[in-house]
Amino acid sequence: MAKKSVGRAIALGKCPQCHEGDLFKSKPYNLRKFTQMHETCPNCGVQYAREPRFFEGAMYVSYAISVALFLTVAFTIYFLFGRQPTYVFMTSIIVAVILLYPLQLRYSRILYLYAFGNLKYKEPVVTDQNN
Questions:
Q1: What is the rounded distance in angstroms from the CA atom of residue 98 to the CA atom of residue 13?
Q2: Which of 13, 36, 86, 95 is 20 to 30 A (C-alpha) from 103?
Q3: Are 124 and 18 contacting, i.e. CB atoms less than 8 angstroms apart?
Q4: What number of other Cβ atoms are within 10 A of residue 7's Cβ?
Q5: φ, ψ dihedrals at 85, nearest 5°
Q6: pTM for this model (two decimals)
């Protein structure tokens, strides 16, 4: 069986160990539940949080994503529309942050788990049904 893509697993928010189980309990824009994660993988049973308060480190990843978002919005406005008043940049950045916050939170946790969770992909065990 071919190894499943890490990039695809990250993009879909799947377990780092089996690349099949979901990390989060709901869709990103379910605003009541978008932060809720499974404690263990529904598919392979691995525990996601390696220690208490493990995902607090994801704040640093979230900060980096925020800086990239701010710069992307600011440069896009500048290069598309030229020099604008400061309120145009600030309003655009605030709107982008509010709209993308659920995705930013999720991907900061996903990237942190993949980078520091010490979970490696394991091939599923295939049993021979014919014997």
A1: 21
A2: 86
A3: yes
A4: 8
A5: -65, 155
A6: 0.81
